[in-house]
Design goal:
The structure holds two protein chains of two kinds.
Chain A lengths: L2 E9 L2 E9 L3 E5 L6 H9 L6 E6 L2 E5 L4 E2 L7 E4 L11 H7 L6 H14 L15 H13 L5 E5 L7 H18 L3 E5 L2 H7 L2 E6 L2 E6 L1 H4 L3 H15 L1
Helix pairs in contact in A: 2-4, 3-4
Chain B lengths: L2 H34 L5 H7 L2 H4 L2 H12 L4 H10 L7 H25 L3 H9 L4 H12 L1 H16 L3 H7 L9 H10 L3 H29 L1
Helix pairs in contact in B: 1-6, 1-9, 4-5, 4-10, 6-9, 6-10, 7-8, 9-12, 11-12
Classes of the chains: A alpha/beta, B mainly alpha.
Chain lengths: 239, 221
């Protein structure tokens, strides 16, 4: 289990050029807005095509510009939680989760849906519409929907950025639970220093489309980007 | 009310329903392509499907004659194979209504699809759903208000089609005289009281359809 990539993509004067790999761990992509973190996730998921490079996940080639391989997003077996969560507003909580269970037979689908509803404590909410539940509950629905097919990789694009602190901590618990149960690499994009330091086994620091540094928390603590973020964090804490 | 007027009303409804049926299918498909796809000639397609909205219907009718007339590009082949010509039949009225009203459907559907959060569509793809499944289960349900609105507008427009219908189907009593054409005939022959009756009838029928459509679209969402 693992993910490795090497990418190059130019868009409107911005160049993303990164190479990194993660094992079965939680890797945080950290950096300021516009550093190319979200673009990297979209490329991994097959939603944006890089100009050149390779992406390998779990021993499978997902993309290789030289060999002309470009696996469709449908076939990449990747769970993706969007920043705005992208819950289907015309489906109930249960409907959203069920929609993620493509390719299973009817009985199995019902069973898996029940299991996910249990893991994410959504039993009381299953018949509700996404707009009628709280932000934290919506996050759980998005996670359940992304994981029901047992993907080989989970991508989280700042999913907790809109939540206040207590809810965030609760979701961090869920994330730990997910890691124990599913044992897959998780890539979390964030520009929140505390989130990065709390959750990441590995921290990959992005700066202007490049990897400034990658390593464990202690290894990267002295990076200028982190120092910059720390200063910002202290200032905003004082206010 | 006289038998001719009833015939015209029935013919108008028949023409409008059939035209709208084709409009929904083609209009949704073209609206989706224009909203979601980049392909060479996209701007041209966009213009082509908008032109009937701004051209005088007589001009649209003229083009349709060039295409479907007995000596037209397509009409010639059709006549050679089947010995049948579309011209001056009620099918020609359907074609005229279809072409003139189609832009309303394309534009409203396109706007409705463009207003869907693109991440919803991408989320569906990452969940393993094909483009067709996503169209069916995410795009169309979320665009349904726009699609219903477009259907109603197109139907109303098809009911009221005059210029292109006159050019293509003529104004043949008991054959191709839809309500708007009958009004024209009655007014032309100075039969004002009768013309007024038909005018009110057409206004009432269109008004009732708009009312019903408004109610259903509210109920569905």
């Amino acid at each position: 289990m693992g993910l490795s990539l090497e990418l190059r993509k130019r868009v409107d004067g911005f160049t993303l050029e990164v190479a990194w790999e993660v094992q079965e761990e939680l890797a945080v992509l950290f950096g300021f807005s516009g550093a190319g973190k979200s673009m990297t996730l979209r490329i991994i998921a097959g939603l944006t095509k890089p100009d050149q490079g390779t992406i390998h996940s779990n021993g499978q080639v997902l993309f290789d510009s030289r060999a002309g391989i470009d696996v469709s997003p449908q076939d990449r077996s990747i769970g993706y939680v969007f920043q705005d969560l992208a819950l289907f507003p015309h489906m109930t909580v249960r409907g959203n989760i069920l929609y993620g269970a493509k390719g299973l037979d009817k009985k199995e689908r019902q069973e898996k849906t029940r299991e996910m509803i249990e893991i994410f404590h959504l039993g009381e909410l299953q018949e509700k519409w996404p707009t009628d539940i709280s932000g934290g509950q919506q996050q759980r629905v998005a996670l359940a929907r992304a994981l029901i097919r047992r993907p080989k990789l989970l991508l989280l694009d700042e999913p907790f950025s809109a939540l206040d602190n207590p809810l965030r901590l609760e979701l961090h618990q869920y994330l730990n639970d997910i890691r124990r149960r599913f044992r897959i690499p998780v890539i979390l994009v964030t520009h929140d220093l505390h989130e990065a330091t709390r959750l990441g086994d590995k921290i990959i620091i992005y700066s202007e489309g490049r990897v400034a540094q990658a390593g464990s928390l202690t290894e990267v603590m002295d990076n200028p980007v982190i120092r910059e973020a720390k200063k910002f964090y202290e200032v905003s804490n004082l206010n | 009310m006289s038998g001719e007027v009833w015939f015209s009303l029935r013919l108008s409804l028949q023409v409008a329903f059939l035209a709208t049926w084709f409009i929904v299918i083609i209009g949704v498909a073209v609206g989706y392509l224009l909203a979601r796809k980049n392909f060479p000639g996209r701007d041209l397609v966009d213009i082509l499907f908008t032109l009937p909205l701004v051209l005088p219907p007589t001009v649209t009718g003229y083009y349709l004659i060039i295409l479907f007339g007995r000596n037209g590009w397509l009409g010639k082949t059709l006549y050679a194979w089947t010995g049948w010509s579309l011209m001056f039949t009620w099918y020609a009225a359907v074609l005229a209504s279809f072409v003139v009203a189609l832009p309303l459907m394309v534009r409203t559907t396109r706007a409705a699809i463009e207003s869907i959060d693109p991440n919803l569509i991408l989320a569906s793809y990452t969940l393993g759903r094909s483009e067709l499944e996503t169209l069916w289960k995410v795009v169309l349900p979320l665009a349904r208000r726009g699609i219903i609105a477009g259907t109603v507008l197109s139907f109303a427009r098809a009911m009221g089609e005059f210029g292109a219908t006159l050019m293509l189907a003529g104004n043949i009593p008991g054959k191709t005289n839809t309500l708007p054409l009958t009004i024209y005939t009655l007014a032309g022959s100075g039969d004002w009281p009768k013309a007024q009756g038909v005018v009110l009838l057409l206004t009432a029928v269109s008004g009732v359809f708009l009312y019903l459509a408004n109610r259903t679209s509210r109920k569905i969402w």
